[in-house]
Specification:
The chain is mainly alpha-helical and about 290 residues long. About 65% of the residues lie in helices and about 0% in strands. The protein is built from twelve helices and no strands. The protein starts with a helix and ends in a 22-residue tail after the last helix.
């Protein structure tokens, strides 16, 4: 196991163990805020005052591990906050969100260690990803403010979303682990010597199980939050994103594997209904059967 994987795992467990005794329910967190600013920061609870010292320990680590450790600690803390508020949709969401990003890093480290980096957490995926997340939070809290009975009164809807998120999570991580060094978060423009076409296991059920998993997770997160508007927006945007991504990726896969991949396309669907991928020629004048 890579040192980076061990550091991230230790940091997550450290965050959970150190913060587990703290009252992290929403009501406790709100009551601990320094409403009396005249005595700030001394009005903060003692464990909170020690957080800067606690986080400062990460600066004693080697520079190559510092950011990984800090990110792992933050994800562990978010996971714990979500766990202690798991009777609410947003608490469940925080748990699922933190686990998704942490498991991305771990799965990459176990399956494709030479490509492991801070980017493997996907917390810095893109500006659009961050904005989509913020918009979903905004919808959740606005609807919670105006329609609390609706937002908190549909637990079965949230549990259904949780199941979809877990299904997507398992599907994506199975795909990453089975593909091994053939998996990469970025579409590759050149074929590595060890690059092989994986068509068995979960890849015998669909050509892009990792994209299917992320698509399910994306939709499930909004069902979990009972966000009807963002469910539609996420569905449309995610579908368009994966349609384009699969098209581009299959162009390169046909260029890499030729007829072997074309035969695979004929036998196995993409995984996301309505997305067929690339079926055209990769070279000028290439004939299609």
């Amino acid at each position: 196991m890579l040192a980076e994987v061990r550091v991230s795992l230790f940091s997550v467990l450290l965050a959970i163990c150190l913060n587990f005794p703290l009252p992290l329910e929403y009501s406790s967190l709100i009551s601990s805020l320094p409403w009396d600013v005249s005595n700030f920061p001394y009005s903060l609870p003692y464990p909170i005052l020690l957080k800067p010292v606690e986080l400062g320990v990460f600066f004693l680590l080697d520079q190559s591990h510092r950011l990984v450790a800090f990110t792992g600690y933050c994800l562990g803390f978010v996971f714990l906050v979500g766990l202690q508020n798991s009777l609410t949709p947003f608490g469940l969401y925080l748990t699922v969100l933190a686990f998704f990003h942490f498991s991305e890093y771990i799965a990459t480290g176990l399956s494709n260690p030479q490509n492991l980096s801070f980017d493997s957490f996907l917390v810095n995926h893109s500006i659009q990803y961050g904005l989509a997340m913020l918009i979903s939070w905004l919808e959740y809290f606005l609807q919670l403010w105006f329609y609390p009975d609706v937002k908190l009164g549909l637990p079965m809807v949230s549990y259904a979303g949780l199941v979809i998120c877990l299904l997507g999570e398992v599907t994506r991580k199975m795909a990453m682990l089975q593909a091994g060094r053939n998996f990469n978060h970025l579409v590759q423009s050149s074929k590595a010597d060890e690059h092989q076409l994986v068509t068995d296991g979960v890849y015998s059920l669909c050509r892009h199980p990792s994209y299917l998993g992320w698509f399910l997770w994306s939709l499930g997160s909004q069902i979990l939050l009972v966000n009807p508007l963002c469910l539609i927006i996420y569905g449309v945007v995610s579908y368009a994103f994966f349609k384009e991504r699969i098209y581009v990726e299959e162009y390169t896969l046909i260029a890499f594997f030729g007829d072997q991949y074309r035969e695979y396309q004929k036998k196995v669907g993409s995984g996301i209904p309505g997305i067929e991928g690339f079926h055209g020629p990769v070279m000028w004048g290439e004939k299609q059967e």
